[in-house]
Each structure stands twice: as structure tokens, then as C-alpha cells.
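From the shared-data thread, chain only:
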Amino acid sequence: MEEAICRDLDAGKKPFAVIGNIGTTNTGSIDPLEKMGAIAKKYNLWFHVDGAFGGSILISPIYRNLAKGVELSDSLSWDTHKWLMQTYSCSTLIVQDKSNLLNSFTEHPEYLADVNSSEHNDSWDLGPEMSRPHRAIKLWYTLQATGTNLLAELIKYSFFNANLVKYELNKLPNWKIISNPSCGTINFRYEPDGLSDEQLNTLTDCISKEIIKSGFAYIVTTTLRERKTLRMCIINANTTKDDIQRTVALLNEIAVRETERVRCASLDKA
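Structure, as C-alpha cells:
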């Protein structure tokens, strides 16, 4: 990242921001936020952290250390509808210095000439929307009703379930973990011998379509380094150990069956 900043500066460009991730949607990956924050400060850049999906780990006393360095950020985005059981949409932007929002968005049109902002500032001074729904009240009610301890248990349980998927897959032949469990997310695929990369991508698509068609589980694909993979995001508090074991068993059954179909299709083409 620092090399990229220096290249831009040498080219006469002016970098102004860097963005780190707490839990990418694809893999749950977390960036080295402390190092990023230090570099951002060194070059006087705005440091934004995208915690839309994984920011909820900050509630967990066990896993919040994975996001060490987030306190260096100038702004943090956080979607509580992704992991904290909130209905869509419930998104949050947290900033270190509120004056940056006021300097960017405050307007005084003629039709608001008689409206004085309160000491807490009106919502239209803090963002591009003049009016907006009370999204935060959903989260507020949840925190009042459940407290943070129960939500922290949910985060812990999600990490456990993703690791359980890895454990179950490692007991079976031909399954390969593409990205290790992180933030309740894991990516993997079935890689039997004798199939080309193109055939393996086709096989991955087939496995996903077949398990979705079964109605038992909804396992979709994503692409990592040009390879189609299966992605499981296990953040539902109602998911049980039995659910995961049965899902993995069904995936394996489908994978074995679909491998033969892919092989036969290849022979027919030949």
C-alpha cells in the first residue's frame, strides 16, 4: 500500500484516502488495520474502515482483538442488519470527528431559514439526506432487550460453526479449503483428480445448483483468484451442529454424483 502511495506521489497525484476491511463479504478477511492506520497517518490520508459485514466482531470480547487498529480510523461503516439480527436496512457510519461531516454536508437553504439546528445537530447536517427513517432505533431496542453479552455469544457461535464446516470437510476426500474460516464465512470446493480448471468450475456450479434445488440449504458460489468456489456464511443463530453435518454430507453426495456427470459430458464432447 505504501509503495502505491509513493508511486502516486511521484506521478504528481494526490492520494487522499485508504480503506481497510473488517471481514470482507466474500471471505470474511480482515486487513492489518494497525499497519494501515500508521501509514495513513504518516501520509496524512483519511483512513476509512469498511466493517459493513465484520464490524460486529467489536461486540465480542474474544474476537474484537482481530480488529485491532480500528481505533485509528477516521470513519467506520457498519451494517448491523448483516450479523446482528436487524431487519434491513440498519446501517451505521461512525466518525472520529463530527465536524468533518458538518463541514461537508451542512446547508442552509431558504426554506429552512427559520429552522435552527439543535445542539445535537439535525440529520441533514450530517449527511446527504435531508430526511431519513430512524434506522438506529432498531439496534437500540435490540441492545436494550438482549444486551451485548447475548450478541457476543452469537458472534462466537458463528466463528464456531464456520470452523465446524472446515472440520467436517477435512474428514472427506477431495474437498479443499480455499479460504479459511473467518467471521463466520468459509470458502471451499470439490477437486477430484483428472478434471481441468474449467471442469472444476463447472462442477462447482453444478453442486451449488443441485443443493439449492434440493431445498435443504442455500449454498452459492463466488470466485476467488479465477476459481469458482462454494461459499458458506453461517451467521444464523438457529443453525445447529446437525444442520452443518447434514449439509456437508449432502454436498459430498451431490459432488460425487455431479463429478461423474461432468466426466461423462467431457467424454461425449470428445
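The mean pLDDT is 92.
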